[in-house]
């Protein structure tokens, strides 16, 4: 649970530490605004993503299912700057389909914590495996990191791409290639 009062105190100290006047009109409510923002952007801490993947349908479907271009926003745990982009998820069910909105909800839960893109990618795949035990899962994330674009190397537009493959997506090159082809629109 986010402690908004402690965040307000920390932001006030930060404003003072950078040499600004926290009483200035434009900064007066900044500690409160940031505490509310952090409560939202870190609302996934301690939440089990499998808890939202409980709506399943026994349809006897055994072919690939893909949800692509799921937007997400997260915070880099190294610099506390945002990274954002899209997530592509594919899975081959053992008859059980996940409700279509449940995967984006799980992505949001996992993204709303201090994160590394590589960990986020694996956590999404592992949560799906745990929730429905499919024949396989593939997750690809494409993201831009503000720690690379507004500071450091300053390369706007550069993206990091990560993948996590489980089950048949890892074991069968043809399945992996089909997934990659479908998410790339070919």
Tell me what you see in this structure:
- 38% of the residues lie in helices and 28% in strands.
- It has 2 domains: 4-41, Orthogonal Bundle (GTP Cyclohydrolase I, Chain A, domain 1), CATH 1.10.286; 54-183, GTP cyclohydrolase I, C-terminal domain/NADPH-dependent 7-cyano-7-deazaguanine reductase, N-terminal domain (GTP Cyclohydrolase I, domain 2, 2-Layer Sandwich).
- It is of the alpha+beta class.
- A hairpin with a 5-residue loop joins strand 2 and strand 3.
- It is built from 7 helices and 7 strands, in the order ααββββαβαβαβαα.
- The strands form 2 sheets. It has a 5-stranded mixed β-sheet with strand order 5-2-3-6-7, with helices on both faces.
- Helix 1 packs across helix 2 (30-41) and helix 3 packs across helix 4 (117-132).
- The longest helix is centred in the last third of the chain and has 16 residues, at 117-132.
Instruction: Extract low-pLDDT stretches.
Output: none
Count of helix runs = 7
- Give the beta-strand count: 7
Main β-sheet, in a few words? 5 strands, mixed
Percent strand equals 25-35%
Shape: elongated
The CATH superfamily title of the largest domain: GTP cyclohydrolase I, C-terminal domain/NADPH-dependent 7-cyano-7-deazaguanine reductase, N-terminal domain
Reading off the top of the CATH hierarchy, the class of the largest domain is best stated as: Alpha Beta
End-to-end span in angstroms? 43 Å
Annotated CATH architecture of the largest domain: 2-Layer Sandwich
What value does the Rg take, in angstroms?
A: 19 Å
Q: CATH topology of the largest domain, which one? A: GTP Cyclohydrolase I, domain 2
Strand order of the largest sheet: 5-2-3-6-7
What would you call the structural class?
Answer: alpha+beta
Mean pLDDT: 96
- Oligomer state of the chains in this structure: single chain
Helix content: 25-40%
Number of structural units classed as domains: 2
